[in-house]
Amino acid sequence: MDFVDYYKILGVDKNATPEDIKSAYRKLARKHHPDLNPNDKQAHQKFQQINEANEVLSDPEKRKKYDAYGKDWQHAEQFEKARQSQQGSQHSGSGDYFQGGHEGDFSDFFESLFGGGRNSAHSSRVKFRGEDYNAELHLKLSDVYKTHQQTLTVNQKNIRITIPAGVENGQVIKLKGYGGPGVNGGPAGDLFITFVITNNTHFKREGNDLSTTIEIDLYTALLGGEVTIETLNGKVKLTVKPETQNGTKVKLKGKGFPVYKKTDEYGDLYVTYSVKLPTGLTEKQKELFKEISKL
Fold this sequence. Notes:
Layout: H1 6-10, H2 18-32, H3 41-57, H4 60-69, H5 76-87, H6 105-114, E1 133-140, E2 148-154, E3 157-163, E4 172-175, E5 191-198, E6 204-206, E7 209-217, H7 218-223, E8 225-231, E9 234-240, E10 249-252, E11 269-276, H8 283-294
Parallel strand pairs: 1-5, 7-11
Antiparallel strand pairs: 2-3, 4-5, 6-7, 8-9, 10-11
């Protein structure tokens, strides 16, 4: 893994305050956001680098490790443990490996300690698991009504995944082995994807059930009739019973949202009737209503 200078990416120096880092990140994120550069691959790549740099430098603990270990900061704890275990058998001068900056020297120490360097014949190759990655996938509610495939770009790699119908907002799935690469032949980390789902419909979702409110006119409510409504799976015709009261709720079984990873299973759709009173009545209509009120 090549050294990546996160400070250079954000355009700040190593003594930058958290406020400086936040300000630089916001400015660059706005400039290179994919929504503003839809067909610019370089801007998209730059946006990913900016996010990665901000994720590390905005976190005090991660920043401390990065400043101390450079490109190997993700394995800081393993380094410390390994160094402590080696101190009993190594010369005290081995501490000199930690001097001189983080762009090369510490990686040389890593190689000599765990194999591949000049002392590899006397040291064991310790395998380290790669770092877990976290990503957000923003979708619309209508997108997750059906199973579909989508391509994600993580660390400049395209990953094609199948998104099952019925995933929920905030749900997290794990893609094993799609995280950071392992060290010394260790296994790769995992990729955790959090779904952020925006409701772009007039339905309210509660688990696998949907609900909505539709207007019916006074005459249909009194005398009965038929109304046609839109569902996420096409139009449905409903029969309205005579003398239907305002606020009446009916259930359409199996017309709700698909159940996650269960083929052909759906929740229900609940429809609430809102009776709309007529306006702009003529004198004749008013007289008729007066007659009805006297009966």
